[in-house]
Structure formats: C-alpha cells, structure tokens
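Worked example

This section walks through a single chain of length 106. The input is the sequence exactly as stored; nothing has been trimmed or padded.
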Amino acid sequence: MRRRLTKNGIITYEISGKVDVTDTGWVQVAKAGLADLSKVAFVGINDDAEICITGGLAILADQSYDIDVSFESLKLSKPNPTYGGDYTAPITSPAGSATPARRKTP
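Given that input, the structure is written out below as tokens.
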C-alpha cells in the first residue's frame, strides 16, 4: 500500500494485493493536523487489490475531518461476516466535545 497526498486535498492509498485490517471500531484513515483535507480514496492498482477486515466491526473513516472516503477498483471482504448491529460511538467535534451518534453498519 502506497499513500500520496495531492495538492487538492485528497489522500490516495494505492492498494496492490491483499491488505488486512486487524483493528476494530473506528479505523482512522488520515493523521491529525492536515490542512485542507477533503477526501481519502482507496484505489486498487491491480487485479488482486483487496481490503479484508479480519477482526470484528471496523469502520474505515475519520472522526477528525468532514471528508469523503471512497473505495475504487478493489475488493472489500470480511471472512465469516455477521451483522454488526447498530454501532453507537461518540463523535468528537472539532471543538473537542463528544456527541453520541448512531451509526448503521453495512
């Protein structure tokens, strides 16, 4: 996996082969402190590009930024998938206060 940041505020993760996600809960897709971030894109660059969530419930997103997250030209997989139920977790606002939010898992 290779990461590049473009001048227009987009981080692109180029995926080749299989990438295992072993973390659970919110899996942050960008580091803190980036200016003008607008989107994070996971893009497959070959035929076997795959992101596999190997553990429990995992949400590849970001709570620090109001951004789009996209998945293009790759396989998303989860061995032995089960419905994760309604996911409830605090969302931290830019000011730092936590607000409970209700999230549906796919």
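What to look for: The chain has a mean pLDDT of 80.
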